[in-house]
């Protein structure tokens, strides 16, 4: 299909990553920890509601008190909570939200110094990636994978690594990781989203369409999925189906603004007029 070469840049991977990055930076188990030990409730609210400067200010103090403090570590251990590196991990997340990637790197490095955790190495790798240091990012992703087990947190690290591999165009390795995540039935929506992206980039349009179909079954309210599925249908010459998906994306979110919608509508109109084959 010769038209593919002109219109294969339908996905902005940076936008896709930014939409889900912070979900995976935070360990779900952290929310179950003793709030008196780890943070004031309003501190957690600040981070989870995007008040990153406020969260960074508070977690700077908590990270400094926690990491390296033997007494605190013993107390935390006795409560069977996550290790004190979570303070520094959350500080790193706050800095990521502020786009201060070097400060995020320092915070995640402190988290790693508290515990050699797959999660913390994955977050550190992501920060290095945003700071345009692919070499160190890969080192920490590989360390993250070496520490990963079968717990849910390890699969979020695997997802982050697969996204990194896609950016490197190492599609086969990324797809292996994504298939493993799907096999364990964790993070299904995100895994299918990126697996579809990888297939599309390799011009495997039917496989991409299948993943977007299944992703929509798992999350029917995410407009981007309909947009990506629309492009897959367009590549397969299902123009009516592509138009339907564009309409669905806009119906789900009237404020959903993406120039790719207008671009695809233009392509559909031109192909209907016989100007693109």
UniProtKB/TrEMBL annotation:
TPR repeats lie at residues 189-222. Keywords: Membrane, TPR repeat, Transmembrane, Transmembrane helix. It comes from the Bacteria. The chain crosses the membrane at residues 20-38. SUPFAM superfamilies: TPR-like. PANTHER family: CELL DIVISION CYCLE 16,23,27, CELL DIVISION CYCLE PROTEIN 27 HOMOLOG. This is Tetratricopeptide repeat protein.
